[in-house]
Amino acid sequence: MNIDYPSLLNSSQLEAVSTSSKHVRVIAGAGSGKTRVLTYRIAYLIDVFHVNPSSILAVTFTNKAANEMKERVDKLIPGAAPFLTVATFHSWCARFLRREAYLLGFPPSFSILDDEDTGKLIQEIVVEHNYKKSDPIVKELRSYISRKKNVGLYPDDIKPSPFFINEKEFVEMYRDYERKKDNSLSMDFDDLLLKTLLILKNFPDVQQRWSNKYQHLLIDEFQDTNDVQYELLNLLSNESTNLYVVGDPDQTIYTWRGANQKIILDMPRRFLDLKDVILNENYRSTSSILNCANSLISHNKKRVPKDLFTNQSGGEPVTLRSFDKPEEEARYVVDEIEKIAGKGEDAIYSNIAILYRSSYLTRPFETELAHRGLPYRIFGGLRFYQRKEVKDVLAYFRVLVNEKDDVAFDRIINVPSRKIGPTSLEIIKKEAASLNLSEYEYVSNITNYPGTEL
Helix or strand or coil: residue 426? Predict the structure, then answer.
């Protein structure tokens, strides 16, 4: 390949891309080109170090990032992308389990429950424990199960705390959740990681086969890795594995769901041969923004010291304003947009963005923009696979490949309308359970059971 790496990368990026070190930690500041570095690192491994693409596993934070990285690599090294494994932790584990879950008694066609499916199953369980679907315990139980799974704990691993008054009941409901899920040959997102760990830890021949498969592990957004994910990386490694991580402790945002900042910070103690590369040239912001950011983040105690800089000098100073009411804030922001728009060829509406913390905060901005007749688009709405009609169709497919998937069956039993009400569904559930059948297995052979109450 004729890739001119020195002309395409700055000196720090080139150092990160071309290093021959076995263990590498790239501290990549915001806007410093970390995706570019990861992409060129993969290309460099194949192009210069002659690494077989099939022995490379790159883990990204989103499926979109994984697809983009593959596309970029394919442009640099045509024909390499089909042999690479670029995936999120969850999507890689799903692929692994389609091949290996038989070891735990699951068929390759096991169902994967999404957030909505999980919520419905939890509602069903709390009702069985004499609560209502609308009671706060639904949200509390869901959060409890997620927290426990994020640290690798199933019901049998939990010893109820005397300081958590209802924990014994929560553990029982968690156990019911797992039982129903297993009976329907289903897994939730957290199970994808935990069941993978279970297999790799309990079947040494499988662990050896998969740890020998990958010679190079590259991990993006490493600052948001949790203990379960890190254990998975260790199980996929052996003495000859090369580990290359990219992240920035200053950008850790997922501690609320188990991200352990210590994993990236403690690497120098775990890997004595660790090579550190710091990417601190920012290509996204002006110096006034970076100076403000640097002065704020410097107060963080748990970080790798660095100061971002840019060759884009000047820029508008950062403005901080506070308001008593959301409507006042919205009026001020839209006033500023009207001042900016039309001042230059780049000052068009499509180049202006309003960032907000949560989607429920958009209403006052939408109201003000609509009132003034300004065009706008909301990003981050329902994704394609979250739309009701799409999920309905997918539920039909899930039942076709997994007759024990009661969650999918419950979704489609009345789609389209078959005039089957909640009472009839409860009878189906009760009678199917009494025969140790899934709901679909029972209904599809209901003529064989003349004693039914239906």
Answer: helix
CATH 3.40.1180.10 for the 5-93+194-279 domain, yes or no: no
Structure tokens at 139: 């949200």
**Interatomic CA distance for residues 437 and 99, integer angstroms:** 26
Residue 397 has pLDDT above 90, yes or no: yes
What's the CATH code, domain 111-184? 1.10.10
Rg of the chain on CA atoms, in Å: 26
Q: Which fold has domain 385-448?
A: PCRA; domain 4 (1.10.486)
Integer angstrom CA distances of residue 25 from 118, 168, 283, 307, 452: 36, 42, 21, 17, 64
> Domain coordinates of the chain in residue numbers?
5-93+194-279, 111-184, 326-372, 385-448
Beta strands 56-59 and 23-28, pairing class: unpaired
- pLDDT at residue 1 greater than cutoff 70: no
Are 125 and 224 in contact by the 8 Å Cβ rule? The answer is no
Q: What is the mean pLDDT of the chain?
A: 92
- CA distances, 335 to each of 263, 375, 437 (Å): 45, 14, 63
Please compute, for residue 80, the number of CA atoms within 13 A of its CA located in the half-sphere on the CB side: 27
Tokens coding 310: 């840019």
Please give the model's pTM, rounded to 2 decimal places.
0.83
